[in-house]
TrEMBL record:
Record key words, sorted: Methyltransferase, Transferase
Superkingdom assignment: Bacteria
GO molecular function, one term: protein-lysine N-methyltransferase activity
Entry protein name: Predicted nicotinamide N-methyase
Ranges annotated as spanning the membrane: none
InterPro entries for the chain: Ribosomal_L11_MeTrfase_PrmA, SAM-dependent_MTases_sf
GO BP annotations, alphabetical order: methylation
Amino acid sequence: MSVPEGFFARHTRLVRPPLVPEVALHLADDVSALWQAMEDDGGGAGDASPFWAAAWVGGQGLARHVLDHPDLVAGKTVLDLGCGSGLVGIAAALAGARRVLASDVDPYALAVVPLNAAASGATGVEPVGDVLDADLPEVEVVLAGDVFYDLRMADRVRPWLFTAWVRGAVVLVGDPGRSQLPEGLREVAGYDVPDSGVDAARRTTVWRLP
Ligand SMILES: C[S@@+](CC[C@H](N)C(=O)[O-])C[C@H]1O[C@@H](n2cnc3c(N)ncnc32)[C@H](O)[C@@H]1O
């Protein structure tokens, strides 16, 4: 499936998420209208929800944390797991990461990440597909914004993040406190994500393994 030329210009608008105004993203106000556009004007909606069309609160908190603590990623190779719009990986690139792999299974996400990186003035962000079933890529930092949003994904992500950590990667997770979040994480920061006009203000936390 390929995303038609101009799809994002026609069906999204460039938005700076309230907690992370450094980053500009092609987002949608009306997800059901976007879903229809993916059927009519895109390559089909497929099985995936258009998660890439929102800046999730867990991702916003993690992106803010990385921008405020550039030493976490500066000069390093970083993986943004479940990148969606690319928000977290783009923040890492702006904070000085040497190379960012932005991983998602959704072809729309993989297509929008380079546009969002360019709109944000970020370089070195490379979209990559599913890494959960592949060998662990050679990365020093894994950033995971809002990846515990459903049970199936959480069950795949939990052991994968643990393996990355055992192999020496720094693992940071942004999450508003979902029930699927693993136990034993260390809380490193908390943020109130301002009301976006769609979602009310919400508290989110940055966690570190272990
Ligand atoms: C809730 S969204 C979070 C997006 C972004 N990190 C943020 O915080 O705004 C989760 C993303 O994980 C992606 N995803 C689902 N399964 C995946 C997999 N096996 N590998 C990588 N990404 C996956 C979804 O397509 C979706 O874009």
